[in-house]
From TrEMBL:
The keyword Repeat does not apply. Signal peptide: none annotated. Binds 2 Zn(2+) ions per subunit. One is catalytic and the other provides a structural contribution. The lineage of its organism: Bacteria, Bacillati, Actinomycetota, Actinomycetes, Kitasatosporales. One of its GO terms (molecular function) is zinc ion binding. This is Fructose-bisphosphate aldolase. Keywords: Metal-binding, Zinc.
């Protein structure tokens, strides 16, 4: 089917008080696994390419983007393409011609006024190209090997009043909020501040996005969706599934040299994890986690 747009998938999810899953892709196996898992679940999905993934692919966006578009157009469920954690204006400007309907412009590392100005400039350009834009206020730590911020450090959490002003000033279409999740976690022990999420949801009219979701336990994700999160970003969980499956296969088959043998095992493990996470996001919250 034709490519879906991130904006329509997230908006529809926000209106239904549900969430769309957005998975970061690095290889063709990631692309195929995410779509396979989404088809198993019968759910729409967002394929995300981060700036770091582009750097890994020798700085070239198009090879992975073209593969993702080709696979998405043959999927049995709606699939959108999103450019994630963009700091480079040059990369931002490649998005429309590469098939992306949306971009997350990441200036959260900057002081508030600079973040607002940079994000507003990016949003003005993106909107002129028909792109939906996500921004971030507060800092979801753990990116690029940096340690997470202390929970009480300035800027470590998103302030609802500041968020309202930030969205109005930038005209961002969605906001990634810092409520306790951390990028690149390999344990699922992140404790979300659901009270803060409730205040953010009440203060804002744009959809809210949760980054660092791989480190959040299932009940935390269910409660986050019930509390107003409409887009859930997942990356590390797929890499952990793939790496674990390949490691086990090679340990059991030390003679293996055909990469198709172990890549297929890794791809299947990622597809199962995609379907599992999509299933979690569709659950009703328990009374104890709401």
């Amino acid at each position: 089917m034709p490519l879906a747009t991130t904006g329509e998938l997230v908006t529809r999810a926000a209106e239904a008080r549900s969430a769309v899953a957005a998975f970061n892709i690095i290889t063709l196996e990631h692309v195929e696994a995410v779509i396979a898992g989404a088809e198993t679940s019968g759910a729409p999905v967002v394929l995300q390419v981060s700036e770091n993934a582009v750097k890994f692919r020798y700085g070239r966006l198009l090879p992975l983007a073209r593969a993702a578009v080709a696979a998405a157009e043959r999927a049995d469920v709606p699939v959108a393409l999103h450019l994630d954690h963009v700091q480079s204006d040059d990369l931002l400007r490649q998005a429309p011609d590469a098939g992306f309907s949306s971009v997350m412009y990441d200036a959260a590392r900057l002081p508030y006024a600079e973040n607002l100005a940079a994000t507003r400039a990016a949003a003005d350009w993106a909107h002129a190209q028909g792109l939906w834009i996500e921004a971030e206020l507060g800092q979801v730590g753990g990116k690029d090997g940096r340690p997470p911020l202390d929970a009480h450090a300035p800027g470590a959490r998103t302030d609802p009043d500041q968020a309202r002003d930030f969205v109005a000033g930038t005209e961002a279409d969605a906001l990634a909020v810092a409520i306790g999740s951390v990028h690149a976690m390999t344990t699922r022990t992140a404790a979300l501040d659901h009270g803060l999420l409730g205040r953010l949801s009440a203060a804002l009219t744009v959809p809210l996005v949760l980054h660092g979701s791989s480190g959040v336990p299932d009940d935390g994700l269910v409660a986050a969706v019930a509390g107003g999160i409409a887009k859930v970003n997942v990356g590390t969980a797929l890499n952990a599934a793939m790496t674990g499956a390949i490691r086990d296969f090679l340990a059991a088959h030390p003679e293996a040299v055909d990469s198709r043998k172990y890549l297929s095992v890794g791809r299947e493990a990622m597809a199962r994890e995609v379907a599992r996470i999509i299933g979690v996001l569709g659950k009703e919250p328990c009374a104890s986690s709401s």
